[in-house]
Amino acid sequence: EVQVVESGGGLVQPGGSLRLSCTASGFTFSNYDMWWVRQAPGEGLEWVSSINSGGTRTSYADSVKGRFTISRDNAKSMVYLDINNLKPEDTAVYYCHVPLRALRGQGTQVTVSS
């Protein structure tokens, strides 16, 4: 089955950190660029970060630049999002997205609150 499954979300205090993980299966992971997108309550989907298939190029939304780091392990078919200095406005469901396959997982909830 072709799928991606996100994990690692949770309730974190402002200033805290999390590592989100995404495990891919059913397709040749190393051939595809990967994105992280998020959806805050009552809002549309927002692109957060992307990484190319080889893991050599990354890009970030201005709102997360300097705080989020995307990485991947093609041997494990996994992509990660390290999130530091979390802010309440980072509260959202975070999704792993494969743009060329129009594939997204069920998401993982990140809630930033004191």
What can you see in these coordinates?
- By secondary structure, the chain is mainly beta.
- It has no helices and 11 strands.
- It has strands at 3-7, 10-12, 18-25, 34-39, 45-51, 58-60, 68-73, 78-83, 92-98, 103-104, 108-112.
- Strands 2, 4, 5, 6, 9, 10 and 11 form a 7-stranded mixed sheet that branches.
Attribute tags:
114 residues, 0% helix, 4-stranded antiparallel β-sheet, single chain, mainly beta, 7-stranded mixed β-sheet, 11 strands
Would you report the number of β strands?
11
Number of DSSP helical runs: 0
Radius of gyration: 13 Å
The class by helix and strand makeup works out as mainly beta
Contiguous runs where pLDDT drops below 50 for at least 5 residues: none
Silhouette = globular
- Cα distance spanning the termini: 39 Å
Strand portion, in percent? Answer: over 45%
Sketch the topology as an H/E string, one letter per element: EEEEEEEEEEE
* Estimated helix fraction: under 10%
| Average pLDDT, all residues | 97
Give a short account of the largest sheet. 7 strands, mixed
